[in-house]
Amino acid sequence: MNRIASDLNISRQTIQKIAKRDFKLNNYQLCRDMKRSRAVEFEIHSPLRNASNMQDEYIAPSVLPSEIRHAITSMKNCTAPGPDRIKPEHLKSIQPVIIKTLARLFTRYLSECKVPTSWKTSKTVLLYKKGDPDDIGIYRPICLLSVIYKLFTRVILNRIGRILDEGQPCEQAGFWRGFSTIDHIHTLTRLIEVSREYNMPLFLTFIDLKKAFNTVETEAVIEALGNQGVPTQYIRMLRELYDSFTTRISPFYKEVIVNMKRGVRQGDTISPKLFGAALENIMRCSEWEDLGVKAERMLAEFDSACGKIGLRLNLTKTMFMKNGLVPDAPFTLNGTNISECSSYVYLGREVNMMNDLAPELCRRKRAA
C-alpha cells in the first residue's frame, strides 16, 4: 500500500480511506446480488405456485452477473467450439465488465423472447459408435452449438431445473440432480435378489428407443413443459430457440443445410431435461394401474404413446428377461416377437437373473 501511495503521490491515510470505501461498496454490491439471487430462487422454485396464474402473470427476473459466473464455472473444458469458434476456456478468462454486458443482453433476450439469428444454426458431426461403419444408422449426430447459446440455455436450466426435477416421479433417476445410473442398477439388482429370496415370479422388459433425442416432436416437449408448471416466458423463450433452427452437415465433403423440425439437441445442457419432461408427460397419460402386471399390454400402450410424440421402439434392442417361475409364453408387440435374453447390458452393466457378477467382470476385462 505504501508503494501504491508513493507512486500516486498521495498520503497513506488517503489511500486507506479509498480502500475502505471500495471495500464497503463491494460488500454492498455483493449483498445486493445475493438478495436478488434469493429473490429469483424464491420466485422460480416456490412450491406454492398455481400453474395457470403463474403462466399468465409471471415475469422473469433480470439475469444477474452472478448467474452468468455460476453458469460459466459449471461449463466443461476441452469441448469442441461451435460456429462462433469460442471455447468455454475463453469465457472463463473474460473480464467482469463482459459478464455484466452478457447479463444485460440475456435479460433483453428473455424479456423480448428474441435471440440472435446466429444462435439458430449449428454444425452437426457424426460420431461412430459401433458396428458396421458403412451403416449410417449407427452414427450419433452431435450438434456443435454456439458457446454463448449454451451459456444462455444453462442460465435458463439453472432457473427451471428444480421445477422439472419436481415433475419427475421417484422411480425416475435419469438426468436428475443427486442421482445416477448406479441408483437404477441397484434397484434392479435388489429386485432380482428379493424375487429369488421369496421365490416370486419376475418379468423384466428392457426398452430401447430409436434415436430418441433426434425424433421427439418439439411441440410435445413444449406441451410437457407447460404441464409441469414451467412459466410461460421460459416456454416462449425455448420455443423461439427451436423455431427455424438449421444445421450444417458435411457427409460427403459437401455441406448440406438441414431444417431441424424435431428433436432436442445433443450437446446442449438443457436437452436431457427437456427430453425427460416429454417422456414423463406420456408416462402420466398411461393407465397402467388398470393393466395390473400384463407386460405385453403395458408395452403396447407405451409404444402407442411414444408414437404420438415421434418416438419409436428399437425392436432389435428391446428385450425381456424372466426367471424360472414365469411360464413360457410368446411376448409380442404389434405382431413382432420380442427377443428373450439371459443377460442384458443395462446402463453399462451386464445383469442376469442370478445376480452373477462373473460375466460382467469378464466383459470389462475384454473391453480393457
From TrEMBL:
One Pfam family from the record: RVT_1
Residue span, Reverse transcriptase domain: 108-351
Domain of life the protein comes from: Eukaryota
Cited InterPro entries: DNA/RNA_pol_sf, RT_dom
Protein's name in the database: Reverse transcriptase domain-containing protein
